[in-house]
Amino acid sequence: MMSVLPASSVYFKKLEIEGFKGEKVGPEFYGNDSSAIEPRFRSLEYLSFVDMQEWQEWVIFEGEVFPCLRELHIYNCPKLSRGLPNELPSLTKLVIRPCKQLVASFPKAPALQEFNVEAKIQLTSGHYYPSLESIYINGDCHHSLWSFPLELFPKLKSIRIDNCENLNSFSASEGCHPNLTSLTIYNCPNFVSILSEVTYAPNLISVSNCEKLKSLPEGMHALLPALVNLGLVGCPELESFPEEGLPSNLEELEIFNCDKLFSRRREWRWHSLKKLREFRVGSHCEESRNFPEEAWLPSTLTHLQISSFRNLKLLNGKGFQHLTSLKSLWLQNCNELQCLPEEGLPTSLFELIISGCPLLGKRCEEEKGEDWDKIAAIPYIEINHTPIGSPSGGTHLSQKVVLKVELHNEKSKMKAMKSVAIGGTHLAQLKLTDSVQRGTCSDNLSLRFWNCWWMGRCEVLSRGQVADFGSFFSFNLRGLKSFST
C-alpha cells in the first residue's frame, strides 16, 4: 500500500514515483478524504510511475481527478493490468512503455497531442481527439480497432502500429487528413488494406511483416500524390504494384522479402518515377542469381542497397552502366555473391559498403584482393564495418568527439554547401537549429550517414542511411571516425 502523500501535495506541479513495491495504488494516494470536492492533485501537471515491478492495479475515482495534468508517463510496470484515468481534460502527452499486461483505452482527453503506448489498446465510442498529432501503439488491439478510425483524429501527422493482431485496415472520411505525413505498420498479420477508398496523403508509408497484404490500392498514384517514401518488407502475398504505377513523386523505395512482387519486377513501371533516388531491395527469389538486369534500374538512383539475396551469385555489370548518378552502393548479407562485375562499378560512386558477403569481401581486401583494382578509386570503402584506407577529403578524428555545427548569424549564408557525409559513428543526438528554420543554407543540402548507430533518441532521423534536409542542421556525435564534405 502506498503511503498517504503530505497535505502540500495539492500544490505539486510534478510528481515522480519510482521503485514502489506495492501491488495497488489506491485511495491513500489521493488523500484521506478522497471524496472531497476539490481533487488532491488539482495543480499537478506531470505524473510518472517508473519501475514498479509488483504494481497490478491503479484505483481511479470518478470525475476529473487530475484536471491540470498535461503529461502522464508509465515505464516498466510489467504487472499493471487495469486502471487508468478516463477523464484528463488537459492531457497533451501519454506514454506507457512497456506494460504488456495493461488493457488501456484512449482516455477522454480532447487536448491530447501524443499517444505512445505499449499495451493492449481499445477505443471507447464517443471520444474525439481534435488535437492528437502522433500515435504509436505497440501491442495487440481490441476488436474495436479492427478498422482503425482515422476520422477521430483530424490533425494526425504520424501513426505507427506494431504487433497488433486484430488490425485489418484503416477507415476515414474523404479528405479529412491533410496533415498525415507518416504511416507505419509492423507485424500486423491480419492487415490487408492500406487504403479503403479514402483520401489522405502521407509522404511515408512503411508496411512490414503483414502476411495477408495482397495488393496496393488502385489509383495509388492519384490518392497519394505526396508520397515520397514507400517501404514494403515481409509481405509474401503482395504480388504487384497498381496498374497505373506508383506515385510519381516517390524518392525512396524499399522492398524486402516480398518474393511474389519481386518475381514480377519486369512489370514495374519505373518510367514514371523520375524522382526516385534511393532503392533498397532484397529477395530469396530463385531467379535472382544475376542481378540487376540490364537498364532495369532507374537512372536517377543515387543510393542502391542490395541485401539478403540468398541466391545471388553475380552482379550484372550491364545493370549498373547507366547509373551515372549513383553515389552509394551497399551490398549486404549475400552469402553466395562471388565477385564484382568485370566492367567495374559506376565511376560516380562515393561510397561502397560490403558486409555479410564472405566471398566478395575477401576479393575486395585492400591491395591484395582480386577485385581491389575495381574499387580502389572509390573515396570511401567499408568491409564488414571496417573502413578501408582513408576517406578521400576526410579528416581523422579522435575516438570520442563531440561535434556541433551551427549557424549563429542569420546573415551568414551558406548556400554553397551541398552535402555533409558522416561515417563510422555512434550518433548521440541530432537536431535542427533555429537558424535552419530561417533557411540560411542550401535548399538541397544532403546529409549522408554510413555505418552509423543511434545512441538514445534522434528526433530528426529514423535510420542511419541517407537523408535530405531543406536547410542546415546542428548535430552532436560520439565516437566519430571520419568526417567528409
UniProtKB/TrEMBL annotation:
InterPro entries: LRR_dom_sf
GO biological process, one term: defense response
Domain of life, per lineage: Eukaryota
Alphabetically ordered keywords of this record: Plant defense
Protein name: Uncharacterized protein
Species of the source: Fagus sylvatica (Beechnut)
Lineage: Eukaryota, Viridiplantae, Streptophyta, Embryophyta, Tracheophyta
